[in-house]
Amino acid sequence: MSVLKGRRIVLGVSGGIAAYKAAELVRLLVKAGADVHVVLSEGGARFVTPVTFQALSGNTVWTDLWDARMPNNMAHIDLGRDADAILVAPATADFLARLAQGRADDLLSTLCLARDVPLIVAPAMNRQMWEAPPTQRNLGLIRADGVTVFGPAAGDQACGEVGMGRMLEPEELFERLEGFFVPKLLAGRKVVMTAGPTFEAIDPVRGITNISSGKMGYALARACAQAGAEVVLVSGPVSLPVPADVRCVPVASALQMRAAVLDALPGAQVFIGVAAVADYRPLEAAEHKLKKSAATLTVSLTPNPDILAEVAAREDAPFCVGFAAESRDLDAYAEGKRRNKRLPLLVGNLVSDGMGGDDNTVILYDDTGRHPLPRAPKAEVAQGIVAHLARLLGA
Ligand code: PMT
Known about the structure:
The protein is an alpha/beta fold.
């Protein structure tokens, strides 16, 4: 269940082309169970009509400070009153300037001034407007006033230029808003993780690999980042977007994964091995593509280093968390792996459950015994693992 379920979010939309993305953001918020109330500036309503937001949010859309539909004519007070947060996305350069000055000459600016709830803005503008000293000054002012700023990102802009100023994509805004409400159980901690499979080359076009979509590892990386940790995710080849505020180091083979982990490890308090690392690699990878023939092809394999065991055996070992995917006898095999690798915590799951799908059923094994978590989407399972991890770190 998303932390946004049941939260009342006021979404302000000011007049920029990124307003069209706000419609998708409303859809994501509503899908997560949030109660979304949209307030459009005059400019925002020129880009996307209130009807669109009304249909998506299922709530009345507000644009006018003098709207007589609000019984007491105090939309600027009533809308913010029970809100959990106000998010303005997109926030134009003009809107930021008006916010910095405390202007109250339309519904959205008045609502922001009259609030006693958190205010978050997602800037969106042309790169020169973003870089302009007045905009940067205004950002400094609103940050000092306690406003949270999400983004912007760099990339192609609607004006044809390339640079800083793009509004974050709706999925990333959603993820960051979720993170805003997640308790910061891992604040101040650095977490290094592995996820996905490894790929061990036989020749330039062939190789051996394990089955892993990366979903469990990426969900856990997201949950750690949302809980306030600095996260380095060393990832085998997967096709998933990198979670917000996570530094991803893409690798292919187990040897590359090991090197990237050792490189990222200094300063880490936690290491989590979610990756399905190939236990063996071809003794030698052919430089050129092997030609097909009728003869049997024999590939000699050599063991890969065990990254988790190596990290856990270090004198300065961080708190190490292992994963085990088993096809049977989960308790015995998982607990065996935990003891062999001397891990304070291991997450066991069944291959039939955990690999590839969106949901997972896991059992956590630590020195006090086994702790099953209910079957749930991997995002939720990850939150459960983070909560348990934080308890053990605290202890
Ligand atoms: O990616 P998904 O599709 O969401 O699937 C998730 C998952 C099933 C892959 C994941 O939840 C999981 O269980 N990962 C561990 C898979 C496994 O059984 O690994 P293992 O038993 O080979 O290794 C045990 C532990 O040692 C793991 O933490 C592994 O990352 C680590 N290891 C193993 C071998 C090796 N050479 N180096 C390692 O670090």
